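User: Please fill in residues for this 566-position structure.
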């Protein structure tokens, strides 16, 4: 009887906990008691004032100018991957074969769309509200009078110099989107918000000042009763039911790696790259164009075509070595306007495998320039001081510097300068300078001699090699967890496992396991599910941060209660 009562109380508690996982492309939000979260496009459109400035964030990363040198670099990398695939064998031991691209292109050039009569639709601009959220943004005319904003880009707040790009503007967009979902999808009225608790999933590499804004948003503006923050990689291990793992999170616009043990993400192992599934989509589109993509009017800069290309990448992309030659596929295109729906048929060959492998062969990511963006490490986020946080590295270094100057002055006054213990003081004072040097060294480890990023397989090895001891390294090499919705191609886990296995130092070679769908959970909601599990644990009672505590103590209480090393 008591167990039934405890179970009912647990369910009531879980119903009052809202888990929020904001991403660059999608927002995942739901009650901790839900099987799956609500997923909507993390985008907002605001009607432009007459004569006001225009701003439209793209649904896919923009393609860089395709110079002759760039096209040659892309083609060389494509051929390298193609030759690697042809040298592989199928599961039956036979050698793989491929259909020549010219033959596929000839078929696609002959392919004509089938028109579906009476399938017209109109843009929604005339009947839409002044503020439009989520998938409804896709039904607005791209040439219309709306500014379109994605509040998060490359895993960070989307701050820029254009209209709506200020910190206040971005946080206002987040509040509008989240409150809209809470009201319309979770049916929670603003007056009842104090009865609910919020768990926010944050990146493993975070900006401290932005965390302050997020907590203020949850407690002071949206009005939750209390909240706590959890890093996405830590949440992923809870969602997968693993005590430790090297977590590889491939999102839409960023990819991150870190080693997690017993709920702690080791700071030195964290690294984030500014590429993800959206960059792979652009690579896939370039490969489709080389094979005479039959939908010739496609423009990846428009929202509906960007969403279409993303869907085609998810449906067609795979790393299954048993699939050889060309495969016939079909898809539909329907845009508001005079044109009816069109059904297309096309052939794809190894292009469906080459695109997903661009996360290991980063030369292909040159199409968006993402392969030459400097990686970010934990030291990068730790070096951002905030006036409310009186124990950050800059404060300690400054007070240490003043102490050193005072000691030196006292020594001069006493004529005993030579006896001061200078080396120890230097260790205190030069902490920031040493940290900057370490940051540059860490980042260089994730770059090739040509200046471009290493592949994801090499990044995993570099991250694990930063673990503090050999035992932990052995455990991490034995359990690699792949999460995120950026690249869910069938077989990518096996390919990554084979690539990492070749690079593991002999002393750490044990039985290797790469987990891509833990407990049959969709990898893109593993972190959300893990945060929901964490929020219902008995030990989570100490983590909750209330609005009065936040108002009184600010960042100091967040430093004390955070479940991660500040």
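Assistant: Residues filled in for all 566 positions:
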């Amino acid at each position: 009887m008591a167990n039934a009562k405890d179970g009912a109380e647990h369910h009531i508690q879980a119903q009052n906990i809202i888990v929020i996982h904001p991403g660059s492309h999608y927002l995942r939000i739901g009650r901790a008691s839900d099987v799956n979260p609500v997923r909507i496009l993390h985008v907002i459109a605001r009607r432009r004032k007459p004569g006001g400035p225009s701003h439209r964030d793209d649904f896919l990363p923009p393609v860089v100018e395709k110079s002759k040198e760039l096209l040659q670099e892309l083609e060389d990398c494509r051929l390298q991957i193609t030759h690697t695939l042809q040298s592989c064998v199928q599961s039956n031991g036979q050698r793989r074969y491929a259909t020549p691209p010219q033959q596929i292109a000839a078929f696609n050039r002959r392919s004509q769309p089938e028109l579906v009569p009476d399938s017209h639709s109109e843009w929604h601009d005339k009947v839409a509200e002044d503020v439009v959220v989520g998938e409804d943004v896709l039904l607005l005319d791209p040439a219309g009078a709306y500014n379109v904003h994605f509040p998060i880009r490359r895993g960070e707040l989307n701050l820029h110099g254009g209209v709506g790009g200020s910190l206040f503007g971005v946080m206002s967009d987040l509040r509008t989107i989240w409150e809209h979902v809470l009201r319309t999808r979770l049916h929670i009225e603003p007056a009842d918000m104090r009865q609910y608790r919020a768990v926010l999933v944050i990146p493993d590499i975070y900006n401290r000042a932005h965390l302050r804004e997020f907590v203020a948003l949850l407690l002071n503006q949206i009005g939750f009763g209390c909240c706590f923050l959890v890093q996405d990689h830590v949440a992923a291990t809870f969602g997968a039911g693993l005590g430790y793992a090297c977590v590889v999170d491939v999102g839409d616009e960023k990819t991150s790696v870190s080693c997690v043990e017993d709920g702690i993400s080791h700071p030195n192992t964290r690294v984030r790259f500014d590429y993800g599934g959206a960059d792979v989509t652009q690579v896939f589109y370039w490969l489709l164009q080389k094979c005479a993509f039959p939908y010739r009017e496609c423009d990846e800069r428009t929202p509906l075509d960007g969403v279409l290309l993303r869907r085609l990448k998810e449906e067609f992309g795979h790393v299954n070595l048993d699939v050889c030659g060309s495969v016939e596929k079909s898809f539909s295109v329907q845009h508001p306007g005079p044109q009816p729906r069109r059904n297309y048929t096309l052939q794809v060959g190894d292009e469906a495998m080459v695109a997903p492998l661009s996360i290991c062969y980063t030369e292909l990511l040159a199409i968006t320039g993402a392969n030459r963006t400097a990686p970010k490490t934990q030291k990068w986020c730790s070096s951002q001081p905030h006036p409310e946080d009186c124990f950050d590295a800059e404060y300690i270094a400054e007070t240490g510097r003043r102490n050193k100057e005072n000691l030196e002055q006292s020594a001069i006054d006493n004529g005993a300068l030579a006896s001061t213990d200078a080396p120890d003081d230097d260790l205190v004072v030069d902490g920031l300078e040493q940290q900057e040097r370490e940051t540059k060294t860490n980042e260089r480890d994730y770059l090739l001699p040509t200046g471009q990023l290493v592949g994801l397989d090499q990044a995993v090895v570099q991250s694990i090699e930063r673990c503090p001891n050999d035992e932990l390294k052995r455990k991490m090499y034995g359990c690699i967890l792949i999460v995120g919705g950026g690249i869910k191609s069938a077989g990518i886990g096996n390919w990554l496992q084979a690539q990492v296995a070749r690079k593991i130092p002999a002393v750490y070679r044990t039985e290797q396991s790469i987990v891509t769908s833990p407990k049959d959970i969709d990898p893109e909601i593993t972190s959300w599910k893990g945060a929901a599990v964490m929020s219902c644990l008995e030990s989570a009672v100490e983590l909750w941060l209330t609005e009065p505590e936040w108002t009184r103590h600010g960042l100091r209480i967040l430093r004390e209660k955070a479940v991660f090393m500040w």
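For context: Confidence is low (pLDDT under 50) at residues 416-432.
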